[in-house]
Amino acid sequence: MTLHVFRAFQSAAAEGYPLPDLQPIRRYLLHVATTVPERDRLQLFVTLAEAQLPPTDEEMRNLDTIAIADDYTRLALMRLHQLRGDSIELDELLAASKKHFGGGRYWGERRFGWYRQPLTDRLACNLLAVRILTDGGREGVAAEVITYLLGQTPTSNLPGSRPHLGTNTLESAKLVDGLLPYLLKDGEQLQPARVRLSGSRTEVVSEFPHELTLPPGEAAGLTLQREGTGPVPIAYHQRYFERQPTSTDNGYTVATELVNPRNRPLKQLAVGATAWLTVTITADADADYALIELPIPAGCSYQDRNEPRGPHAVHREYRRDRVAIFCDRLPAGTHTYRVALEPRFNGTYTLNPARVELQYLPAVNGNDGIKSIAIIREGL
Q1: Which of residues 276 and 159 earns the better pLDDT score?
Q2: What ranges make up the beta strands (E) of the chain?
Q3: Tens of pLDDT along 8-57?
Q4: Which of 78, 88, 136, 264 is a good FRET partner for 325, with 20 to 30 A between their CA atoms?
Q5: Is the distance from CB of 152 to CB of 160 less than 8 angstroms?
Q6: CA 107 to CA 118: how far, in whole Å?
Q7: For 156, which DSSP code?
Q8: How far is 199 from 174, CA to CA, in rounded Å?
Q9: Which of 276, 257, 278, 279 is nearest to 267 (CA)?
Q10: CA-based Rg of the chain, rounded to a whole angstrom?
């Protein structure tokens, strides 16, 4: 609490408000610095350093003995060295970052601890990273971090999902306080974003999200210009029917397999014997709002429509020829989804490719190849 009060006083002082003497608070914070956990100690010294009170040589030597167990520790120590005027290796910092399919770069994990650190670990890390990169002359990379943070603000907390960034008053205030200085030029007022279309079509878009469908010839002559404050994400894609699909990997690797109840691969199915269509998806980076489609062969029907949705899924639809799985967030890593099938008619059927794509950025996608599967009637 004392640290929060000190930060508030520092912000008020920057705006020219008259304040009492802050030396007693500074002395108290330095006194307790040796008694608090390492993460709290780093927060404390970063706050004091931002207030023109960087750690002394001896204090910095003690802080450098802290083991770098996570991104926050790495970023906090680097920020302290930067505020002291020491040289830092920004390339080393960038090597530890991760990419997001929606655009942007980030550090940190989705860990939460309200008492000790009333910010998500990822939010605290990236607000630190923006300051480090900007002061280090890497404004372009800092813009990538800002793009990530702007894309993570919440619309709602859907069931089965981790909370987004900025889900409480403190986090929202931190986002506004941390990002507005970089989004607004000196003296600039916050203005609603607009996109002006010219060339083959003239239009001004001010309501988002906005979707526009154009014939190929008209799309080639279109020019877009952003107006207002802040970035506006734009995605452009074209859809077409692929008659002989092959395996593609544009951010996702997809593998399909038919297995029996013992999870052993099947080369053919038997009428009446339950089989599971298993689809394994490997994501290269975190993403939001992913759609996964699992086509079923024509000789099969669904054996169970109440099976588990699968990792990170918030909704599952059993359609006539496929299962559609919706994930509001799909993190990097490997995820497996299963559909129980009941083979009904013998014959040889086509198994269309399973695929995954981002609903608002379809250029990020992946699918496996087309397959053929035989269904036999045992005893004939």
Answers
A1: 276
A2: 98-99, 105-106, 194-199, 203-205, 222-227, 248-250, 252-259, 268-270, 275-283, 287-295, 300-302, 313-318, 322-330, 333-343, 347-351, 355-358, 361-367, 371-376
A3: 787 787 778 887 777 788 888 877 877 888 888 888 899 888 888 888 89
A4: 264
A5: no
A6: 17
A7: -
A8: 41
A9: 257
A10: 27
Which of 296, 293, 289 is closest to 269 using CA atoms? 296
What pLDDT shows up at residue 349?
95
Strand duo 322-330 + 313-318: pairing: antiparallel
Outline where 192-306 has alpha helix (H): 216-220
Average pLDDT of the segment spanning 260-273: 92
Q: What is the pLDDT, as a whole number, of residue 69?
A: 83
Q: Is the torsion defined by CA of 26, 108, 309, 316 positive or negative? A: positive
How many whole angstroms separate alpha carbon 234 and alpha carbon 31?
A: 51
Place of tokens 């996109």: 195
Cα–Cα distances in angstroms (integers) from residue 280 to residues 178, 269, 350, in the given order:
39, 20, 19
94, 41, 91, 31: which is closest to 65 by C-alpha? 41
Peptide bond into 215 cis (omega under 30): no
- Pairing label, strands 300-302, 275-283: unpaired
303-342 pLDDT per residue, tens:
989 999 999 999 999 999 999 999 988 988 999 999 999 9
Find the helix packing angle between 169-183 and 139-151, rounded to 10°. 140
Residues 6+ apart with CB under 8 A from 114: none
CA angle 120/121/124 to nearest 5° reads 85
Sign of CA dihedral 246, 252, 253, 257: negative
Q: Determine how β-strand 268-270 pairs with β-strand 371-376.
A: parallel
| N residues, the chain | 380
Question: CA–CA separation, 354 vs 286, rounded Å?
Answer: 20
Measured between alpha carbons, how far is 110 from 148 in angstroms, rounded to an integer?
14
For residue 57, give both structure tokens: 């040589």
For residues 157 and 220, what is the distance between their CA atoms, to the nearest angstrom? 39
Question: Measured in whole angstroms, how far is the alpha carbon of residue 374 from the centre of its chain?
Answer: 40
